[in-house]
Design a protein that fits this description.
heterodimer; A: mainly alpha; about 80% helix; B: about 250 residues; alpha/beta; 6-stranded mixed β-sheet; about 25% strand
Chain lengths: ~290, ~250
């Protein structure tokens, strides 16, 4: 019984197994990036960045059709360009970075939809916007798993300066360390993960598996590492549960996965051990000292 | 007198408006100097310039210190960031282990010692978002202790800090002075400067006076500092006082 529902779909179908592995890789790398996006107060900017992949991916699509390398490379270039241009606009004018990000991503999104409509069909557009995790093939899987590897190694390498950049950038500067360098490296890793995630979840929801578990974890943990340790299994469970639900109910898998992640967020918001609704409404108890 | 810092005709400007205007002064080595002046007088900008962090400076700063430690205003730090007291203090050893090195046993031992000596023993694992303003300032002082700097720059170390904490932290500052380190602090409490700081630099965008506190903080000088125009003059012409770099 349990076997039929939980194991059989993966045992019987290779595309389900590949989707599961993709979820695992996306969870491990993505939620670590997500934790930092939140701590840097960049969650919405991250989302804007993910939408900005679209015109690049669309150009890749225009030139190469539904080819993975072309679309990924295009997406990565477009994402990095958006991040660098909006960062530069914010630095050289008095415009705030969130505003310049919004301007850049709206431009990109419109441009992307336009480019896809030049050649593709509505189905292609749906594929790019919402992804197709069940269509992940071996090549896409290599990209996703490779990205996860690069991300974990990269994050480990820049971990300390990045943490200090987040909470006390002036100190880093006084130590003669260029915080902007680590910020850009982090942005590059973030864009790389969005590119990997957009194969599976599409540009509109690429951040779903990165941000939702990280936000949920912030209701349980109070250190960067423990937040990550809690976010990763939540992300993977969202992926696995979402895949099974969508398989049995015949629903599109991307939105279901993201919705399951939202469920984790909701439960954490209500029941989490710190700053949650529960801790707010429960009878106040205090210690003696 | 040995100077730890020599400011030669220093101008720091933002958007071309000077925050510090043609200031020449010397900060004596191994002593305690207070920087005093009204809000907007350029005190923090002067500290930033000493650190080499001011965006645009004209003139020159000569610094003989090998290692500089800096206490920022608390507003510059994200105090909600999830990091523990011990880790925050350990950052003081950045110059030793940098971005990639490992903190040695001795570093952790020293950090614990510094935490105890600022009166926070037992707080090592506490996240910083649970600390009061005063406790957090003690944490930052512990980090300064670990930096082992010969020049210590403090930007408003006692803003919104209670009397007992001020006494404790002044004790730390006096210890630095006894160890022949140079201490420069931006302060607002004139009485405290008169009591504790032998040297003062009175700033009102331009230098009013610098030297022994008793002379610098005369009633007449303080009045002059207070009369500084706070607003920018948007129609001010370009300042064409030539730089006196040979001075």
């Amino acid at each position: 019984m349990l076997y039929t529902y939980l194991i059989e779909p993966f045992a019987d179908f290779a595309f389900m197994r590949r989707a599961l592995v993709a979820c695992l890789a996306l969870s491990v790398a993505g939620s670590s990036i997500g934790v930092f996006l939140i701590l840097r107060r960049m969650s919405l900017m991250g989302d804007a960045l993910a939408h900005a992949l679209l015109p690049g991916a669309a150009l890749g699509f225009l030139l190469g059709g539904l080819s993975l390398p072309a679309m990924s490379l295009g997406g990565f270039v477009a994402g990095m360009a958006t991040a660098l241009v909006s960062g530069a606009i914010a630095r050289f004018t008095s415009m705030r970075e969130d505003a310049s990000f919004a301007a850049a991503y709206l431009t990109s999104l419109a441009l992307g939809v336009l480019i896809v409509s030049l050649r593709g069909s509505a189905i292609d557009l749906m594929n790019i916007l919402f992804g197709a995790i069940l269509a992940v093939d071996d090549k896409a899987l290599f990209l996703i798993v490779g990205t996860a590897t690069v991300t974990l190694v990269g994050l480990a390498a820049i971990y300390r300066p990045l943490v200090v950049e987040c909470f006390n950038p002036g100190f880093l500067a006084a130590m003669g360390v260029r915080g902007a360098l680590y910020h850009s490296l982090f942005l590059a890793l973030a864009v790389l993960n969005m590119v990997a995630a957009f194969q599976a979840l599409g540009t509109l929801m690429a951040l779903g598996l990165m941000l939702l578990p990280a936000v949920a974890a912030s209701f349980w943990a109070r250190e960067v590492w423990s937040m990550t340790v809690i976010a990763v299994p939540m992300a993977f469970l969202s992926g696995a549960i979402g895949l099974l639900l969508s398989f049995h109910a015949g629903l599109p898998s991307g939105p279901v996965i993201v919705l399951v992640a939202s469920l984790f967020f909701l439960v954490s918001l209500l029941l989490g051990s710190r700053a949650s609704v529960r801790s707010r409404v429960s009878r106040p108890v205090h210690l003696r000292g | 007198m040995n100077a730890a810092l020599k400011l030669v005709d220093l101008t720091v400007s933002y958007d071309r408006h000077p925050a510090v205007h043609h200031v020449s002064a010397e900060i004596p080595s191994g002593e305690m100097t207070a920087i005093v002046g009204p809000n907007g007088a350029g005190k923090s900008s002067l500290l930033k310039a000493m650190l080499g962090l001011a965006p645009r400076i004209e003139g020159k700063i000569e610094c003989t210190a090998r290692r500089i430690a800096y206490l920022p205003q608390q507003a510059e730090i994200d105090r909600s960031f999830p990091i523990a007291v011990l880790d925050t203090v350990l950052l003081g050893r950045w110059s030793r282990f940098g971005a990639f090195g490992k903190a040695q046993k001795i570093d952790i031992h020293d950090a614990q010692h510094a935490i105890e000596s600022v009166g926070l023993g037992g707080f090592e694992r506490r996240p910083i978002d649970t600390l009061s303003v005063g406790q957090f300032q003690r944490v930052l002082f512990a980090r300064l202790l670990l930096q082992d700097a010969d020049l210590v720059l403090l930007d408003e170390p006692f803003a919104a800090i209670d009397a007992k904490t001020v006494v404790d932290l002044m004790e730390v500052i006096r210890r630095w002075q006894a160890e022949k380190r140079t201490v420069v602090a931006v302060l607002h409490d004139i009485d405290q400067v008169r009591r504790d700081f032998p040297n003062a630099l009175l700033l009102a965008r331009e230098l009013v006076d610098s030297g022994p506190t008793s002379r610098v903080l005369s009633a007449e000088n303080l009045l002059r500092a207070r009369s500084m125009a706070e607003a920018w003059d948007d129609h001010a012409g370009t300042c064409d006082v030539p730089l006196k770099l040979s001075a």
